[in-house]
């Protein structure tokens, strides 16, 4: 079975904010600041709701029977609609198990709202048995199904009080975790035109998630110890072959148990 690990990075949807809150005439930065202030006044949180998030990066780690790859969809200037179309194309082509960290709580709801906005059809993703009867009992939308594994949700036994940050779990397991950037800095980087940094950051989040997934497969006996080490080594070899600064930094921070 193919495995597709995904993560998204978002910024405030200032076009929606301008319409919803009558903020015409302001710059994107001013609109975002106003949106955050309005939401904080209402809820006490600065984190904007899902439908007011715009996707600027989607990164993927794909394990097939023949290879392992990690990359960001499209280009730095690709439209949100193109990123979403490419994401769904991957599901249509590889029919994978989706893996995420908090994908059920954040990434997928955002993807749903943005797909609604752009009118992007994704029949395989939305199938709950209409086209493929097997999807009735195991589909991408079912929280307790295995076609999408939200690792944070599953490992917390579906108890919100037990939810944990990706970075802390990754570091606890000996993986690099976040390296220099976090989600709170994405808007600032976006305004500065640093799309490469955002995409690199998204890719490292995806890889941390994939490495946790491998450990998860080990504890549920889908991988034995030897195969687990082989899968980790495949990841290392892949990163070494890419020769990119963020992967060189990742490799330096990642110490295998036998090193």
- Beta-strand content estimate: 5-15%
Average of the residue pLDDT scores: 96
The helix fraction, in percent, is 40-55%
* Shape, per Cα inertia axes: globular
Overall radius of gyration? 19 Å
Name the CATH class.
Alpha Beta
Trace the largest sheet across and list its strands. Answer: 3-2-1-4-5
CATH superfamily: Ribonuclease H-like superfamily/Ribonuclease H
Number of structurally distinct domains = 1
What does this entry show, briefly?
By secondary structure, the chain is an alpha/beta fold.
Describe the structure.
This protein has helices at 14-20, 28-43, 80-94, 103-118, 123-126, 151-155, 166-172, 186-191, 195-219, 225-242, 245-253; strands at residues 3-12, 53-63, 68-72, 97-100, 148-150. It is of the alpha/beta class and 259 residues long. It has one domain (3-253): 2-Layer Sandwich (Nucleotidyltransferase, domain 5). It has a 5-stranded mixed β-sheet with strand order 3-2-1-4-5, sandwiched between helices. Strand 2 and strand 3 form a beta hairpin.
């Amino acid at each position: 079975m193919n495995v597709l690990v995904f993560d998204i990075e978002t910024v405030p949807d200032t076009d929606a904010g301008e319409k919803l809150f009558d903020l015409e005439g302001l710059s994107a930065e001013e609109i975002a600041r106003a949106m955050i202030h309005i939401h904080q006044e209402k809820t006490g949180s600065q984190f904007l709701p899902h439908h007011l998030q715009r996707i600027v990066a989607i990164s993927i780690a794909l394990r097939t029977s023949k290879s392992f790859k990690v990359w960001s969809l499209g280009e730095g200037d690709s439209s949100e609609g193109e990123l979403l179309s490419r994401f769904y194309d991957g599901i249509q082509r590889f029919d994978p198990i989706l893996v995420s960290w908090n994908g059920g709580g954040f990434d997928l709801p955002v993807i749903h709202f943005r797909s609604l906005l752009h009118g992007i059809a994704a029949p395989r993703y939305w199938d709950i048995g209409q086209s493929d009867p097997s999807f009735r009992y195991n589909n991408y939308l079912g929280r307790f199904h295995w076609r999408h594994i939200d690792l944070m949700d599953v490992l917390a036994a579906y108890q919100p009080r037990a939810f944990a940050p990706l970075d802390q779990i990754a570091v606890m397991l000996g993986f690099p975790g976040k390296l220099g950037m976090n989600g709170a800095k994405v808007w600032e980087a976006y305004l500065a035109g640093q799309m490469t940094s955002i995409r690199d950051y998204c890719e490292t989040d995806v890889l941390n998630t994939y490495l946790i997934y491998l450990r998860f497969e080990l504890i549920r006996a889908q991988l034995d110890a030897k195969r687990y080490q082989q899968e980790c080594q495949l990841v290392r070899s892949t990163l070494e072959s890419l020769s990119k600064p963020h992967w060189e930094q990742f490799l330096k921070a990642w110490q295998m148990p036998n090193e």
